[in-house]
Design goal:
This protein is mainly α and 198 residues long. It has one domain. It has 7 helices and 2 strands. The protein has a two-stranded antiparallel sheet with strand order 1-2. The protein starts with a strand and ends with a helix.
Length: 198
Amino acid sequence: MYPKARIEALTDGLFAVAMTILVLDVRRPEDFHPADQVALARALLALWPKFFPYLLSFYVLGSTWLANVKLRSHGEFVDRRCAAWWIFYLFLATCLPFSTSVVGRFFHFGPAIWLYTFNMAALATVGYRLTVLLPDLDDDKHTLDRKVSLLFLLGTSLLCAALSPIAQGRALWVYLLNFGTAPLSRWLDKRRGASDRA
């Protein structure tokens, strides 16, 4: 048995590092010296292909971390199987800066998109598995929110992978649908509350 508090502390640290490292790839080359403000403005706009995956990845890591914090698990320890899945989950979270960097540089190539979508889909799948394995987890709106957001992330990852052969430069836009998970979770929670009262 492993103390859950220690694994949660490791999770907090690794998520903080992964979210910080994400931004390191959003930069101009060191030898870039703009001649005027128009050249600087153009150069900043040219960073958009790198900034967009950064924004998506930061949102996914941030919302995933927040959802983990809101889960109410009353168990103080996790078994070996849960701990192994948790370590694998953290591995996938720390791989996200690399896949974000690759897709930020080569967003118009299928393999870069597939690497990124595989990382996102694996993070969602293993995160869902962890939610199921956590001991004494409350079945409340926070757990529902977590499950819905992870299933939504998995769905948008699969949709992005399916669209990438025909719309490589635009397939990543599918991930913007993940910003709709909070309203969807609230709607599902209201429906569940209404069916419980009936």
